[in-house]
Amino acid sequence: MSRIDDKISEIKKYIEELDSILPATFEEYLNLEKKAACERYVEKIMEAVTDLAFIFIKLKKLRLPEDDADAFNVLNENKVIDEALMKRMQDAKGMRNIIAHQYGKIDDRVVFETITTKLLKDVREFLGKAGKE
Questions:
Q1: Which end of the chain is more exposed for a tag (fewer CB within 10 A), N or C?
Q2: Tens digit of pLDDT for each residue in 69-87?
Q3: What is the C-alpha to C-alpha distance for residues 20 and 32, in angstroms, rounded to an integer?
Q4: Domain layout of the chain by residue ranges
Q5: pLDDT digits (tens, 9 = 90+) for 6-33
Q6: CATH homologous superfamily, domain 3-130
């Protein structure tokens, strides 16, 4: 199994685990244990997605990114992902940083809505693109 396959398997495992605990409603999400667990999985998923981007870039000998967000630019420049997905991955990485580093006040509703409506779909789309190459 390649490093890319290993990382994809890790991300899929985190997605399944998040799916299994994801509350159906915002009110359920506000339970401290649920919220903390969901936020932790967002951190783990986005760290692993960023790792996957860097592994892919290194294996394909693409230009080295300046930072984590730039890794998604590199993938876009090389037509691995489109611009819309690039921006969504950068936004998800930014949200992960806010959660992990407690920058300012976290808007729980925005985090919940992002997890339940966008993040998992976007990550699955990213895996489909980065896993094909």
A1: N
A2: 999 999 999 999 999 999 9
A3: 17
A4: 3-130
A5: 999 999 999 999 999 999 999 999 999 9
A6: bsu32300-like (1.20.120.580)
